Amino acid sequence: MTLAFSAAELIALLTPRATRGGTTATLRTIAALKDAQPGDLSFLGNPKYKPEVAATRASVVLLPADFDGEPATDQLFLLVDNPSAALATLCARLEAALWPRPAAGIHPSAIIARSATIDPSATVGPLCVIEDDAVIGPRTVLQAQVFIGRAARIGTDGWFMSGVHLATETVVGDRVRLHAGVVLGSDGFGYESATGRHIKIPQIGQVVIGDDVEIGANTTIDRARFSRTYVGTGTKIDNLVMIGHNVVIGRHCIICAQVGISGSATLEDYVVLGGQAGVAGHLTIGKGAKADGQTGINTTVAPGTFWKGSPCLPYQLEQRINVLRQRLPDLFRKVDTIAAELAELKRLPR
Amino acid sequence: MTLAFSAAELIALLTPRATRGGTTATLRTIAALKDAQPGDLSFLGNPKYKPEVAATRASVVLLPADFDGEPATDQLFLLVDNPSAALATLCARLEAALWPRPAAGIHPSAIIARSATIDPSATVGPLCVIEDDAVIGPRTVLQAQVFIGRAARIGTDGWFMSGVHLATETVVGDRVRLHAGVVLGSDGFGYESATGRHIKIPQIGQVVIGDDVEIGANTTIDRARFSRTYVGTGTKIDNLVMIGHNVVIGRHCIICAQVGISGSATLEDYVVLGGQAGVAGHLTIGKGAKADGQTGINTTVAPGTFWKGSPCLPYQLEQRINVLRQRLPDLFRKVDTIAAELAELKRLPR
Amino acid sequence: MTLAFSAAELIALLTPRATRGGTTATLRTIAALKDAQPGDLSFLGNPKYKPEVAATRASVVLLPADFDGEPATDQLFLLVDNPSAALATLCARLEAALWPRPAAGIHPSAIIARSATIDPSATVGPLCVIEDDAVIGPRTVLQAQVFIGRAARIGTDGWFMSGVHLATETVVGDRVRLHAGVVLGSDGFGYESATGRHIKIPQIGQVVIGDDVEIGANTTIDRARFSRTYVGTGTKIDNLVMIGHNVVIGRHCIICAQVGISGSATLEDYVVLGGQAGVAGHLTIGKGAKADGQTGINTTVAPGTFWKGSPCLPYQLEQRINVLRQRLPDLFRKVDTIAAELAELKRLPR
What we know:
The structure is a homotrimer of 350-residue chains.
Chain A: H1 7-14, E1 18-21, E2 29-30, E3 40-43, H2 50-53, E4 60-64, E5 76-80, H3 83-98, E6 105-106, E7 111-112, E8 117-118, E9 123-124, E10 129-130, E11 135-136, E12 141-142, E13 147-148, E14 153-154, E15 159-160, E16 165-166, E17 171-172, E18 177-178, E19 183-186, E20 191-194, E21 197-200, E22 206-209, E23 214-215, E24 220-222, E25 228-231, E26 236-237, E27 242-243, E28 248-249, E29 254-255, E30 260-261, E31 266-267, E32 272-273, E33 278-279, E34 284-285, E35 290-291, E36 296-297, E37 306-308, E38 313-314, H4 315-326, H5 328-347
Parallel strand pairs in A: 2-3, 3-4, 4-5, 6-9, 7-10, 8-11, 9-12, 10-13, 11-14, 12-15, 13-16, 14-17, 15-18, 16-19, 17-22, 18-23, 19-24, 22-25, 23-26, 24-27, 25-28, 26-29, 27-30, 28-31, 29-32, 30-33, 31-34, 32-35, 33-36, 35-37
Antiparallel strand pairs in A: 1-5, 20-21, 37-38
């Protein structure tokens, strides 16, 4: 996709209170202050990054109206009431260019149960299936070949890509974006073993997703055994993640690709899990705790802590042990030498 | 879903030979004897758990008719011929409430090859595709948007959720439950490398699934290079599992989420693999062997053993090494101290 | 599937320049020289394997026309201009038997935008959706229930199995084989965190796939934040792999199942990643480098090197450390003994 904004177009779009400096660059993408290159737009969303503004190479920077620094050469400052809000405006514009909203209405090839309720402003694309008593909220778009099971309820402004599957009674909030192949509400993995066979425990709960959640391609979230599996507002989940039954995830968490979260685990708000990390069942990860990629979390984790390794240890300790581990060949040799010297010493006459 | 049974309703459903005690609790779920809480139903399916009956907090317990203990306060014993069978009866009732069986017949939007054979008691939901020579057995339900490839054969009482894909010649037994997005019969990953390119080895075998198997959402099982990839009766497989070509899995195994099993591995009966475990190709895991989550199995494993770590070691050894590993900083310091003391000692006059 | 060739049928199919020896075996599959069993066909595609010909148990061996060895008993040599080309001819024949090419044309149940361009020799199966401005090349087959997003372009001779999803503007080369459930072009996982919320960075790039690529079931490849996520010609990718935004993969790589590659990583040509390996973002893996299963690559890797462990170390070093690691209980005991003996020695009068 060819996307390009001039400084003038940005000013027209974002209507800043004031501008400082100027740039001839064509703006092509958005980056954090410290990562930005010429041609990028950046922004100061959090005052703690203020020292990074002076060094940023971004061609355009969104700043709060009371910001008092000066731009570099060929750099434009846009002073706005709320840089984060301005950024969101720009993002919405960029996405609209790539994903133009389809017309409201139901494609004639979609199969819709009579008892389903579909807001007139929603879009139901080709070959979707919507079962009895399902509810689709205002302006929600089901792209194509989406399945919405019996009595599922979807809020406003959702965007479900092709091949999304929502099982019976799944509930999804507002402004939720589900990528292709997402499955919500598949049965949890629960059996009682008796007489050498595994007898299925009915999984009769549901999946409930808060507002402003995004879920990546082919991720699966299982329905609860009883009650609900829950994902809190603002949480972002990457591709091929597995979330087991009765897991409760807080607000604004970041769950990277291929993470697995076992049944009945709890993640408090702002937890960050690196790719391929695994979480054992029935434990709690405290607010703001983080885990590196491939970490195996098998213990309850305190808020704000950072973990690494499988099984996990505090990040700094694990890093230190990993360094020492590489020195094991030396250590074994050194201990052998010491043992030989000690034996020699003991043999000496006194 | 609001689900609730009174003691009286349970008695009416399960028709026990006798009852002992009583409870006013509303029964909402099923749990193992040691995990059960008030409001739960539990059961004694295996005599070895008999000692756990006295301590269980379950409000209702299914017991064999000759059980001689007494219930606690507000606890009801139901004495039945076969507690496991009674449990299965209850489970079937619970699931039927959530997943009412759709009417038999073929939805007019489904695309069915003329040479396909579909039992009149089967249900083929909207927008399914069934190719030539496929066979769908009695009472099997294809929920919606399911694909059944050429000459695939499915037994009786199957339940395939939306978006399941079965490639050409896949064979599935009776009472098999496949969750949304399952792929059976995709090509195995096999190439011969010649002159700097990877030449595909045709994958002309098939996938064969036994009876009473359940497979979780978005799991994939590859067809054999030749002959068959096989999953034995009663085995349960969780979400996002990968089973490579020519793998043979025995009966009543438990394969947790995101496990990967490489080509031509063999799992004997009752193997249990924890989440994210990996199994290398061309090896055998003996009957009843277990592996913890994230284990990397790169060796043939004897029956009944328990493994952990990557690469795997016997569970107890791996646990012990993980404890010692945390003491490496101390060990390095201690060896340095010893070396210094020894040098000092050697310097002393004798 | 029953597949069987006699020696005579193979000769008729491959028209060798000459034959040597003979076999009564029925040929059923293809194997590497060192793995082949009676009943297998093998081949000498690379001169460096010439010493393996004498010991191979294959019933038929494809060899270059100037090969001068003699076959064993009941073994047939087929001398051809190019063994790799002959193998490819045979493979094409085997696959054609299992996957007969459907008739060209568009199934009446497919939903095709008017502005899409579909070559008359292509096949669009039942219940596919093709959006505006998409292009489907000659002889490409979309099996069933495939989604091709707006302005996506697919080359010649592609074969997309059921339930493949290509998002807007995805580009795919010639002779690409995508298995069921593959998702190309889902949004990359990128957010800027501001005021306690994660603001989505629009993912406005695309996915571009070279020629002769094969991608396994339910694998996902994310579109770039800007520019492109790229997979080079001849690369083979297994099931349930996750490839993040802006990743660049070279030619003829092998990516095994459940691998995860984080955003902006670069793989040069001929890289091989074992199952469940993970690659951190923004690093480069040099040409021909390899990683064992479950490896965690968190560093730039030189060409031709081999890695293992999480975090990764050179393979030989990691193997050695894993051996020493098992001896940690002994080492701790030995150091305790040494310390005790040293203390004793220091107590002695001199």
